[in-house]
Design a protein that fits this description.
This protein is of the alpha/beta class. The chain is about 45% helix and about 15% strand. The protein has 13 helices and 11 strands.
Length: about 325
């Protein structure tokens, strides 16, 4: 079991994200994971720095903690050749601490370059497959070309490749994406505690690590925590079909006007009681995930990290499927 800390790039500026990563390393987290967005989900979150610059700075400021994107879309806003180069460079600078999380993306971030974002989920998955093939091709060395249905590559070479290539974790919300993670990825990434996702991944031959984000909001009292999550993270209750389609923060604001505090409490572990956080994490462990990302939507990141260090680090690492520690 490895425990990660989610760097909420929609909620904090770049220097603060680097500071939190250093704090997470000191607190004993195994890795940090950063969202790779162009826009925040809601305007009042107020931030969305370039994730790759932040990761490079974190690599320079830390020595042990792993780094991951959670996740990058390598098909529209970025060409996969750019991501192949960026990931290889970051792997070198971090001395092998980087995991490349990839997914099919959200309209919120991808439409900004004016190339459009496919309406059909099947098309997005086809593009992700081609992107994975291009990245793997470039990482095999030499000059490479590729002619796909959606993506092309012409005489490209990544000159600086690490001896050990980064692990690729592919985001999945259904059977086809989980199978793609098994075929062309090294691991699985998910945001829901659905055991069928891990089942699909294993059925397709996947044997790598399984990453999942556990929603939580720490504060000294439950109401303060839930209100903070309601204010900045209510978009998380819309579900993937909505999250992948809406084009701008104002649309997410409009789509979540009916979300209430009680809805937040059903989704997020809130407040000061460690048992609530362990119960939430247990659901993901029972579903088959072994890399848990603590996604704190509370108002005090330092308070949460201190709470994690005192109350959660040891107990989380003892969790096993079925809830009976070995």
């Amino acid at each position: 079991m490895e425990i990660g800390y989610k760097l909420a790039a929609e909620a904090f500026g770049p220097a603060e994200l680097v500071r939190q990563a250093v704090l997470a390393e000191e607190a004993g987290f195994d890795f940090v994971e950063i969202s790779d967005h162009y826009h925040p989900w809601l305007d009042n979150q107020g931030h969305s720095p370039f994730a790759w610059t932040v990761l490079g700075s974190i690599a320079a400021r830390t020595s042990r903690i792993g780094l991951a994107t959670g996740v990058t879309c390598p098909t529209v806003r970025y060409h996969p050749a750019v991501i192949a180069q960026a990931a290889a460079t970051l792997a070198l600078l971090s001395e092998g601490r980087f995991v490349l999380g990839l997914g099919s993306g959200e309209r919120l971030n991808e439409h900004v370059v004016g190339r459009g974002f496919p309406d059909a989920v099947s098309t997005r998955q086809e593009m992700l497959r081609e992107a994975l093939e291009i990245i793997r091709l470039l990482w095999s060395g030499g000059y490479r070309s590729y002619e796909g249905k959606h993506l092309r590559l012409e005489d490209a070479r990544v000159f600086d490749l690490p001896e050990e290539l980064p692990l690729i974790a592919v985001a999945a919300g259904g059977r086809e994406a989980a199978a793609l993670a098994a075929e062309l990825g090294d691991g699985l990434f998910a945001t829901e505690d659905r055991p069928e996702l891990v089942g699909h991944y294993h059925d397709a031959g996947g044997t790598g690590p399984r990453y999942a984000e556990v929603p939580m909001a720490w504060a000294p009292d439950e109401h303060t925590a839930a209100q903070a999550a309601l204010d900045t993270s209510r978009w998380a209750l819309t579900g993937w079909k909505v999250m992948s389609e809406l084009p701008n923060p104002v649309n997410f604001d409009a789509a979540t006007t009916t979300v209430r505090e009680e809805d937040i409490l059903r989704k997020f572990a809130c407040g000061p009681d460690p048992a609530r956080y362990l119960d939430a994490a247990q659901q993901f462990v029972d579903a088959g995930f072994d890399r848990l990302v603590m996604q704190n939507a509370g108002p005090d990141p330092d308070g949460f990290v201190d709470f994690y260090r005192r109350e959660l680090d040891g107990p989380l690492r003892k969790l096993v499927p079925g809830g009976k520690p070995a």
